[in-house]
């Protein structure tokens, strides 16, 4: 059952920021995650602030420098179907195309996908876990088949977004509006690791709103992709996923971004794999070394060690596809 709350539908960013002034105010964009969290009692809400009436938060437009602006309220389905994104930013189109189900892609928004709450069954269930203000992470010694192998520290969630790893790999930034101010932040710096704060997911201050996502102009020779492995080939979250963005000049990889989903509490840069790829020819030996390097430092829990060979195989196949 949904709790009682006030519903506000502002017509401007300033009005939305003002309405979000209380600690338990929540943003409603697509609502595909929010409504479930409220119904299940995952977190409280005294005020729900809809962004549906705010002009200028939806749409995909080229920027003056050859990049792309995506409004925060643009749906996942619109992004997956956009011809320019499919051509120039393939990883993002592929990531958007495998988010949830067709119905949810038609309703869910790009900013909402970046800001969604963890899918951990302890966090979503009737457990007073560390992320909800309790004293422990139950996944550490509990059912942890789907949990992280990197960056757990005190909380072992995995970040649920498919579009976030693709946006990190492509060097995207978010524009953020607050109380009389605005700022920009790389998507790579948007999410909070548990080592910084196990009860917070985003580096957004109270009242701040993501207004748009900006992609830089694609570099000549850029090839990108996204693929995830899930329990079912339907609506499901990643057990393992990888976003790749490689800049290839002739036979050599000039630059490489390898970002994992289903691996860590935040979109996880596999920096050792990136280092092994840079300056190398994308042949079988390089691909094998990069896949192994991506798992260097992994710390699986009692029931998710299968993720290491799963990631290695996935990364190998995706690099071979780009080669």
Note down, in words, how this protein is organized.
The chain is α+β, with helices and mostly antiparallel strands and 323 residues long. The chain is built from 12 helices and 12 strands. The chain has a 5-stranded antiparallel sheet. It has a 4-stranded antiparallel sheet with strand order 9-10-11-12, sandwiched between helices. A 3-stranded parallel sheet has the order 1-3-2, with no helix packed on it. Helix 10 packs antiparallel against helix 11 and helix 11 packs antiparallel against helix 12. The protein is globular, with a radius of gyration of 19 Å.
CATH architectural designation of the domain at 222-322: 2-Layer Sandwich
Could you say which overall geometry the principal axes of the C-alpha atoms support?
globular
Q: Write the element-wise H/E pattern from the N-terminal end onward.
A: EHEHEEEHHHHHHHEEEEEEEHHH
The residue ranges in which pLDDT falls below 50 over 5 or more consecutive positions are none
Assign the CATH class of the domain at 222-322.
Alpha Beta
**Largest sheet geometry:** 5 strands, antiparallel
CATH level 3 topology of the domain at 222-322: Enolase-like, domain 1
Radius of gyration of CA atoms, rounded to a whole number: 19 Å
- Main structural class: alpha+beta
Lateral arrangement of strands in the main beta sheet: 4-5-8-6-7
Report the strand count.
Answer: 12
Task: Give the terminus-to-terminus CA distance.
Answer: 51 Å
Helical segment count: 12
Give the strand content. 15-25%
CATH superfamily of the domain at 222-322: CO dehydrogenase flavoprotein, C-terminal domain
Q: What is the helical fraction, as a range of percent? A: 25-40%
Average pLDDT for all residues: 96
